[in-house]
Amino acid sequence: MPLDLSGALQRLRDGRSTSLELMRESLAAARSDACQQVFVREFFDTALASAEAADLLRRSGLPGSPLQGLAISVKDLFDVAGQPTTGGSASLLDAPIAAADAACVARLRQAGAAFIGHSNLSEFAFSGVGINPHHGTPLNPVTRALDGKTRIPGGSTSGGAVSVACGAAWAALGSDTGGSIRIPAALQGLVGFKNTARLTPNEGCMPLSTSLDTSCAVTRSVRDAALLHELLSGQVLPPAGRPLARWRLGVVRELMQDALEPAVARAFERALQRLRAAGAQIEELSLAPLQELPALQAQGGLPAAESWAWHRQRLLTREAAYDPRVALRIKRGATISAADYIDLLQARRRWIAAMQAALQGVDTLLSPTVPMTAPELAPLLTSDDAFFATNTLLLRNTSVVNLLDGCALSLPCHEAGELPVGLMLWNSALRDADLLAIAAQIEPLVSPSIGGH
């Protein structure tokens, strides 16, 4: 894995690199074959100018910004001042220019980020696969380097994750409504952190499901995830306290380990063995509330109801410009009445309370992020049945955390030379600091490589 963001920042502080040198390397990667179809629109010239400004500040002896002019990609859901925001859709190609940055974009810009472009995504962020029929689909560069096959990147933050995996960006600002940060991270051997939704602002970000949407980032390491979370949330994480052996870790067998691909099952069990060998206390847990998930997700659940509210007028006149698979999922919301929606919100609150009661005393749960390695792209382009079956499996484990209003982090747990597999650490709301602290201790035990460490 390439150098991570924290390592690059240390090089800048030590005077071993300049922001402009690192930006030129990022842009060379962004123009490479591995990064094709990653950007809906490019901000390369302004990114170079931001890097030059960061170098000027350091030469002048002024305090450097936290991100020091390094390259960050932005999912094409977030407003960037002076640019349109189109959600990866042909139906919004006439979108107006944004007058101001989205709140998370503004926080990263204030921290010195150099934005290199709006990254590609599943249209309107409504898929865990990462296919986009309007702008093309970014290909998974990590798996292609391993076996030469054309595999999916994972979605919906497909372009953002590829921008990090191929070295074009040090981190990718994206969103996670049902797994859209963690799925592409898992399939590409990256780190994806979905924080408790209320900790980061969604203003200026195109919604999918207002109850579930979370603004967060894909990075190359856990320490980078912690840095981005601090910048996006405006919070300072406390120093790690307890050693790994003093955290209570749980493994859930129901649902989260059903129908695992053999490679995923092997990697997950190997990770658990390594953690136990390092002194981790891991216990098997039963979570009866997981049995209620099918009822909560019937009729498309909250994403269908809330996306229909946002898209229903546009679909009347522009449905032909939508990805038909996305339009189909949005239109499921048309059958959900106001009473059904209110009942669903109340049922979710009861379910969260039951889950929180079941998780009392547990510091983090461990699960495979997704039950498969990255599947090949071609069958999913031509078969709706294959696409929707794959999409459902990709979202199965990750979407539990969004419904829980919780936090989760996916980190790689495969061996070098194997197709990427993600290990998901997760818990209920506002356990973010503990989860990041635990992940930092687990990462060197299970990850194939850690950039810059």
TrEMBL record:
Family matches, as Pfam families: Amidase (PF01425)
InterPro entries, alphabetized: Amidase, Amidase_dom, AS_sf
Domain Amidase: 31-436
GO molecular-function term, one example from the UniProt record: catalytic activity
NCBIfam families: PRK07056.1 (NF005460)
Protein name, UniProt field: Amidase
Organism: Paucibacter sediminis
Phylogenetic classification of the source organism: Bacteria, Pseudomonadati, Pseudomonadota, Betaproteobacteria, Burkholderiales
